[in-house]
Write a structure and sequence with these properties.
Strand content: 15-25%
Structural class: alpha+beta
Shape: globular
Order of helices and strands: HEEHEHEHEEHEHE
Mean pLDDT: 83
Radius of gyration: 18 Å
Largest sheet: 6 strands, antiparallel
Number of helices: 6
Number of strands: 8
Low-confidence stretches: none
Helix content: 25-40%
Distance between the termini: 29 Å
């Protein structure tokens, strides 16, 4: 697919509704087991099914290394959220790090990340709706060396680490679970 056609399709197929009323809100997390209930409450969707983090080990590793929870849940809705205007969608793609401005001020696919956008287009058309929440707290470790030592020793959170307050940094309902892949990048 040509770049122009791909941009056109991405602009028209994305459904993205930010949830600014959740951003900045503090929530207390007691552990992995309660994340589904938290997603259902915050997204006001009793049938939400957690897809990320997908297990307690992933939850613990990301929390230990970065002090964050990157939460995604499928929402049992008929179709995606209400459509957003194509120009607004291009802004969303750009702010999320998927697009960049070229020298001639035309939007182009960012060369470093444009590889996955055809797969993204297939997901946009799949009919699945996601709720996304990005939460953060203090990091458990300051440096990579400490984190590596922690992972080699069993990667369990220290006693008393949870429950802990987290701040919601971003929240949305969308038809593309990976929309924040570059906006909130971590490895």
């Amino acid at each position: 697919m040509s770049t122009r056609r791909l941009l056109h399709a991405l602009a028209h197929e994305l459904h993205y509704r930010p949830l600014p009323q959740l951003v900045g809100r503090q929530v207390v997390i007691e552990g992995f087991a309660e994340l589904t209930a938290l997603a259902r409450e915050l997204l006001e969707e009793p049938g939400a099914a957690l897809t990320r983090p997908d297990d307690a080990a992933h939850f613990t590793a990301v929390l230990g290394k970065y002090g964050l929870i990157d939460l995604a849940a499928t929402l049992p809705r008929e179709g995606p959220p209400a459509p957003t205007p194509p120009r607004e969608n291009l802004r969303v793609w750009s702010e999320a790090g998927w697009l960049e401005r070229a020298e001639d001020d035309e939007l182009e696919l960012a060369l470093a990340v444009g590889q996955g956008l055809e797969e993204a287009l297939a997901e946009l058309r799949s009919g699945v709706t996601y709720g996304r929440l990005f939460l953060h707290t203090e990091r458990l470790f300051e440096g990579l060396r400490e984190w590596r030592a922690w992972t080699r020793s069993g990667a369990t959170l220290p006693a008393g680490y949870l429950p802990r307050a987290f701040t919601i940094a971003d929240a949305c309902v969308t038809n593309y679970a990976g929309i924040w892949q570059w906006k909130h990048f971590y490895w």
